[in-house]
Amino acid sequence: ETASGYALFVRDQYDELGNIDEGAVQTDNLKDFMSLVKLRAFLPFTSAEVALSNINAIVAGECTDELRDFLSMHLTTQSKKKKKAAAYKLGVADPKLGDSLNELGFQVTYSQSVRDMLRGCRQHVAKMVKMDESDLDKARCGLGHAYSRNKMQFDPNRQDKPIINAIAILDGL
């Protein structure tokens, strides 16, 4: 997931355990990284509110309808009755989100090699999606502020006034 939407990347060279064959992924060079990982699909969020609701669900380890529909459209799920193995392993960074996706029938894996690949995907997503880096930075900043503001509203100690004021000043800049 990014601040602007969901992206699905494909990596073909995996062994049976879901690990990357060559070991650590080299993420610095875009050309080398694109030879390992391809962008299959991108689903932009329709509004800032949709982005905020999706990020809140992801942080809680829940799969949203948008994410489920996006993955169902581009991946085949494993039937609970047919114990046939899926033709893919979906790499995720968060085990709680992985459990939610696994309950929906997606084959999920999370390991150090998956985290390395996700790091490269985050680093190069703007170029792979053909998006301006400054637009993605603005989306990240806006979503980060909205998420923080939303989290602070639910502070039981109500010691959040200085933080809310600081965020409001940053938003005004």
TrEMBL record:
One of its GO terms (molecular function) is snoRNA binding. Signal peptide: none annotated. Residues 1-61 form the Nucleolar protein 58/56 N-terminal domain. GO terms for cellular component: box C/D methylation guide snoRNP complex; small-subunit processome. Transmembrane segments: none annotated. Gene3D superfamilies: 1.10.287.4070. This is snoRNP complex protein nop56. The gene is NOP56_2.
